[in-house]
UniProtKB/TrEMBL annotation:
A Pfam family the protein falls into: Pkinase
Lineage: Eukaryota, Viridiplantae, Streptophyta, Embryophyta, Tracheophyta
EC number, UniProt record: 2.7.12.2
InterPro entries referenced in this protein's UniProt entry, alphabetically: Kinase-like_dom_sf, Prot_kinase_dom, Protein_kinase_ATP_BS, Ser/Thr_kinase_AS
UniProt keyword list: ATP-binding, Kinase, Nucleotide-binding, Serine/threonine-protein kinase, Transferase
Main enzyme class: transferase
MF annotations from Gene Ontology: ATP binding; MAP kinase kinase activity; protein serine/threonine kinase activity
The organism of origin for this protein: Rhynchospora breviuscula
Domain of life per record: Eukaryota
Protein kinase domain location: 74-334
Binding-site list for ATP: 103
Protein name, per record: mitogen-activated protein kinase kinase
A single GO BP: response to other organism
Length: 370
């Protein structure tokens, strides 16, 4: 099919007086109108989808910088998750054969609002931090904003705690250190609040790397509906000052992180009554408990003093009393395991992966063209 289309193409050599750099990109790609030629082959680029951002500034992997993304180049392998905004799919790039997570956010919105969202997503994508999931590219097509994300092959912390129930302190320290580094970047370098730190937004790969994702997405979703301060998602990890409608700052992410880490340690969401006590909290009871009751803490008879102190440094109802991400990186709980060579990769590799990747044959150049 593609072979036939290509056979009908007339290739014309640029006239002598045309400067070569009009056609050649830094990566050695020749491009003229809809035609692109590089070491990966010859390709017709159609303008079916609107590409929102260039990938050059977003990539932490130098090899990815040359990758041209078009929706038609991404083949779906499997749906890997569903959130309140849309579906996340595992996709494979037809040309470089690498895997990515494609997150679709359904949005039937006006052109002006779309431009605003695009602008916000664009700002959010310029991240150069190993502890933040890379967003390589985004598209807008048929009312859906699609984000091409770094694929984290061990899923989220939510997937992991479903399997292991609890995570031991040494692993929690290693995991937490990475999340704190991501938060230091967001809070102290980018001066932004994540707003939705929770187990499903902390992703893990087989190397044991933990990265924060969905930074800014919930704010963008809310603003697209004309409700800038309306939250889309779960309220479980939301700080008391946000629930009660007071002003809040980056310390509200620290509250959320404290709850997530405590949940991983004790094996249940800290505000849900333990199995021995009766009943579950309703939505309103939960919000009331977060705002009115003393904050949860780590049981001193089950956990180290360093861990109990770390949790209490995060889960303080008064945001002023909470430590910052920078201070927490220096906390004795994080320091305690720093030179112990704890490998989170070994823990996650012993678990079932969220997706069993099928074996793929790397296509030959001729196969792509025919
Ligand atoms: P909500 O929409 O309420 O925030 P959520 O975070 O679970 O919930 P999504 O962000 O849409 O919703 O993600 C759905 C699931 O897809 C996640 O729980 C995670 O398991 C998976 N996922 C998301 N991004 C990636 C990624 N980059 N790599 C691997 N898996 C991912
Ligand atoms: Mg998410």
């Amino acid at each position: 099919m593609k072979g036939k289309a290509l056979a009908q193409l007339k290739l014309s050599v640029p006239a002598q007086e045309t400067p070569v750099d009009k056609f050649l990109t830094a990566s050695g790609t020749f491009q003229d109108g809809e035609l692109r030629l590089n070491q990966k082959g010859l390709k017709l680029i159609r303008e079916e989808t609107e590409s929102l951002t260039p990938s050059q500034t977003q990539s932490s992997d130098a090899n990815e910088e040359d990758v041209q993304f078009a929706l038609e180049d991404l083949e779906t392998i499997k749906v890997i998750g569903k959130g309140s905004g849309g579906v996340v799919q595992l996709v494979r790039h037809k040309w470089n054969c690498k895997f990515y997570a494609l997150k679709g956010i359904q949005m039937n919105i006006q052109e002006t609002i779309r431009k605003q969202i695009v602008q916000e997503l664009k700002i959010n994508q310029v991240t150069q931090c190993p502890e933040i999931v890379v967003c390589y590219h985004s598209f807008y097509h048929n009312g859906v904003i699609s984000l091409v994300l770094e694929y984290m092959d061990r899923g989220s912390l939510a997937d992991i705690i479903k399997q292991v129930k609890t995570i031991l302190e040494p692993y929690l320290a290693v995991l937490c250190k990475q999340v704190l580094k991501g938060l230091v970047y967001l809070h102290h370098e980018r001066h932004v609040i994540h707003r939705d730190i929770k187990p499903s937004n902390l992703l893990v790969n087989h190397k044991g790397e933990v990265k924060i994702t969905d930074f800014g997405v919930s704010a963008v979703l809310a603003s697209s509906m004309g409700q800038r301060d309306t939250f889309v998602g779960t309220y479980n990890y939301m700080s008391p000052e946000r629930i009660s409608g007071s002003s809040y700052d980056y310390k509200s992410d620290i509250w959320s992180l404290g709850l997530v880490i405590l949940e991983c340690a004790i094996g249940r969401f800290p505000y849900i009554p333990s199995e021995e006590s009766e009943g579950w909290l309703s939505f309103y009871e939960l919000l009331e408990a977060i705002v009115d009751q003393p904050p949860p803490s780590a049981p001193a008879d089950q956990f180290s003093p360093e861990f109990c102190s770390f949790i209490s440094a995060c889960i303080q109802k008064d945001p002023q009393q909470r430590m910052s991400a920078l201070q927490l990186l220096e906390h004795p709980f994080i320091k305690k395991f720093e030179d112990k060579d704890i490998d989170l990769g070994i823990l996650v590799s012993s678990l079932d992966p969220p997706v069993n990747l099928p074996e793929f044959k790397v296509p030959l150049y001729q196969d792509i063209l025919s």
